[in-house]
Amino acid sequence: MRFADSAVWRSALPLCPLLLFLVVFFLYPVGRVLSLSLTPGSQASPFHELFATPVYRAALWRTFHVSVTVTLACLALGYPVAYMAATAPRPWSGLLLALAITPFWISILGRSFTWLVLLQRNGVVNQLLQALGVTREPVSLVYNAFGVYIGMIHILLPFMILSLYSVLRGIDGSLLRAAASLGANEWQTFRHVYLPLSLPGVAAGVVLLFIMGLGFFITPALLGGGRVTLVTMLIETNIHATLNWPMASALSVVLLGATLLVLIPSYGLLQLDRAFGAGPR
Q: Which ranges in the chain belong to alpha helices (H)?
């Protein structure tokens, strides 16, 4: 018995540096944020002030609304691209996938600044709209919610395509041929066979993008011009401007809680490990 216990300890010994790293750089910071969020302020607790202040409530609602909208837009745009890449012959499939991940070569800050230049009143997009006769004068495409949506969709769309592609590529083509041999047309085959089999990829992409959308900061700050206030901006303001660390911690805890509420049930019910390629096939 003692020999078995010593063998277990020896096998677990290589994990000690990793566990120490997680404790120091993950568990302790998270615990510190949780303790700060429970620190009472001069008038009330941070959570009471958070949900009682209209500015904070509006920012919370706007953050969730933006994240959901961007996620659904990326799903609508990314599914056809992933479908084409997964069903195309090998050379064209690789080309489409390469074009989808090309934006990864540019940093998020660089892409955000690029959209800032393209969407400004004298930018390329407004010049093109006027040249085509769509508009007579420059329209406001940036420093508002529209610019935030465009920038976030452009940045998050490749993640949706990759999440869908990993599942769509693994769908057995013999099932589609069997449905066709039984008299199903292309739409019926897609609706009753292909689409249900692709739902793990849809779930993985939706959960991934929604969680990433909750924590976006650079793109909304640049393209929103301070007019589209999200929770992450309020966290930055409370840390650097007002030095209200308890309120910043409370806002962070709300985002963390929302992430866990989405991730944990989705991981268990929708088997996201298989969608990301980690589970048994």
A: 2-12, 16-22, 28-37, 46-52, 54-87, 90-101, 108-119, 124-131, 145-168, 173-181, 186-189, 195-214, 218-224, 231-240, 245-269, 272-275
What is the residue-averaged pLDDT of the chain? 84
The one-character DSSP state at 125 is H
What is the SS3 assignment for 176-197? HHHHHHCCCCHHHHHHHHHHHH
160 touches 74 (CB < 8 A): yes
Among candidate residues 80, 39, 28, the one with its CA nearest the CA of residue 245: 39
Contact between 227 and 143 under an 8 Å Cβ cutoff? The reply is yes
Q: Which two tokens stand for residue 256?
A: 């963390």
pTM: 0.85
User: Of the ranges 105-114, 155-164, 272-281, which one carries the lowest mean pLDDT score?
Assistant: 272-281
Half-sphere exposure of 49 (CA within 13 A, CB side): 17
Q: Chain centroid to CA 151: how far?
A: 13
CB count in 10 Å sphere of residue 222? 20
C-alpha distance from residue 47 to each of 43, 44, 214 (Å) = 12, 8, 19
Please answer whether residues 276 and 267 qualify as being in contact, where contact means their C-beta atoms are separated by less than 8 angstroms: no
Q: How confident is the model at residue 101 (pLDDT cuts 50, 70, 90)?
A: confident
